[in-house]
Amino acid sequence: MDQNDIKNKINEKLVELLDLLGIKYEIEFVETDADSIKIEIKTEQSNLLIGYHGETLSSLQHILNVMLYKEFKEQARVVIDISGYRQERERKLIELAISASDKARFINKSVALYPMNSYERKIIHEKVSTLDGVSSISEGEGYSRRVIIVPESS
């Protein structure tokens, strides 16, 4: 799969989708590596594209990934950020992982976090894996799946 073909198709599909919404936007390819293509969409109407807890953003990203798979018959992982939302969310999730890990060590009991999507759980698991004295597991099904932070001494 040629990266330029993929970028051109991404740009074409995003322009098509975003023009239907009638908003002003700017698309920027932030980072491209072997695993993924990261895109930043800048707009003054970011709330419309982000949605409640990032649900619209996740849906837009999923639709774009499906369109690309249909076009190229290969998985091309595209990560979309809108006006820095994902970056800020990741920062908050890392803070949550650190705080919950400190609490789990302090009370010497497992700490359950609120339900999260797989992307958010992955961020938590990655951060917890770098911290001493705690580990993490996922528990639950579907929309109720959550991360549990477990102190190593229990």
What does this structure look like?
The protein is an alpha+beta fold and 154 residues long. It has 2 domains: 3-83, GMP Synthetase, Chain A, domain 3 (2-Layer Sandwich), CATH 3.30.300.20; 88-151, 2-Layer Sandwich (Ribosomal Protein S8, Chain: A, domain 1), CATH 3.30.1370.50. The chain contains 5 helices and 6 strands, in the order αββααβαβαββ. The chain has helices at 3-21, 46-50, 55-72, 85-107, 118-128, and strands at residues 26-32, 36-42, 77-82, 111-112, 134-139, 146-151. Strands 1-2-3 form a 3-stranded mixed sheet. The protein has a 3-stranded antiparallel sheet with strand order 4-6-5. The model has no long low-confidence stretch (mean pLDDT 90).
